[in-house]
Design brief:
Blueprint: E1 2-8, E2 12-18, H1 22-34, E3 38-49, H2 55-63, E4 91-99, E5 102-105, E6 110-111, E7 124-128, E8 133-143, E9 154-167, H3 176-180, E10 186-189, E11 192-195, H4 208-214, E12 224-239, H5 245-280
The structure holds iron/sulfur cluster (2 copies) and zinc ion.
One iron/sulfur cluster (SF4) binds next to helix 3 and helix 4.
């Protein structure tokens, strides 16, 4: 299996994965969304809330704020040595105290640990009128997107098969498919349609070009055909700021490896037991 990084920064990645099956590619996608732990606010103690929002809505909005999470710094609450009571290793406390008039923003959440700040400063939480105020304490804990969407580190995570575009010599260069392509990746060159250099990966596999070609009355088969490679995939991943995208990718790969190691160990343990039983028989 090979990964070719096409573009990567802290918030976005585009890469090409070659070799695995479609099932593996989907497992990888699901692991990035649901199995890489991040911090999110789970408990809120509200001392004063005279805003227009109910306490529950306020707590819900706080839960959806992405919190910067340093990998390895925290442990899940159920695996912590405190036994789930809550300590510095399994969570971060925040305070918020704002009086109106004005907007309460995510930057008003003051963390006990300065490394675990909201990933974006300017997320609006609630607008306060004159004499309204919000005073609360909150606690963020580590968990996975599989448990609740607020722990997902990704805002977008998907893949498509690598496109293959074939043009037969029946093409007369009429350009109908060029006009129809929503991604503008085709051009007519030397009397025949061709893919513009470095634009192939933008193809969405929509096949509108094939339809356009058929509408020219070319016959039973279009001159342009769209297929895809069965074990080559283009991934696009966007993070919510809680983790750099590179950490989301490596976290998901580590999760898959740990899972397969565990499965292999269990299978060999089972086959060992079966072997012993057979020997004793
Ligand atoms: S499949 Fe869609 S995006 Fe790809 S070349 Fe044809 S029209 Fe363009
Ligand atoms: S519509 Fe068909 S014939 Fe016309 S340029 Fe496209 S592939 Fe060639
Ligand atoms: Zn703890």
């Amino acid at each position: 299996m090979e990964i070719e990084i096409l573009r990567m920064d802290d918030s976005q990645a585009r890469f090409c994965l070659s070799g695995p099956s479609q099932a593996f590619a989907n497992a990888f996608r699901r692991a990035m969304i649901g199995e890489v732990p991040t911090l999110a606010i789970e408990d809120v103690r509200i001392y004063d809330n005279t805003s227009a929002l109910f306490d529950e809505m306020l707590a819900h909005r706080l839960g959806l704020i992405p919190i910067k999470t340093e990998p390895g710094l925290y442990v899940p609450q159920d695996k912590c040595s405190c036994g789930g009571e809550g300590c510095d290793r399994c969570g971060v406390a925040f305070t918020l105290s704002v009086e109106g008039p004005g907007m309460v923003y995510s930057r008003d959440l003051i963390p006990q640990d300065p490394r675990a700040v909201p990933a974006v400063d300017t997320i609006p939480i609630v607008k306060l009128g004159k004499d309204q105020k919000v005073v609360l304490e909150a606690r963020a804990v580590l968990n996975c997107g599989r448990v609740h969407a607020k722990w997902q580190p990704t805002t977008a995570c998907g893949f498509k098969n690598y496109p293959v575009i074939t043009v037969s010599n029946r093409c007369d260069g009429c350009g109908r498919c060029v006009d129809e392509c929503p991604r503008s990746i085709l051009e007519v060159r030397n009397g025949r349609v061709t893919v513009i250099e470095n634009r192939l990966e933008e193809c969405s596999l929509c096949r509108l070009c094939e339809k356009a070609c058929m509408s020219t009355g070319i016959g039973e088969e279009p001159a342009i055909t769209i297929t895809s490679e069965k074990s080559r995939f283009i991934f696009v991943v966007e993070g919510d700021g809680s983790l750099p995208v590179g950490d989301i990718i490596t976290g998901a790969l580590k999760y898959l490896k740990d899972q397969s190691d565990e499965l292999r160990a269990q299978v060999s343990e089972l086959s060992g037991v079966t072997g012993d039983e057979e020997e004793s028989d």
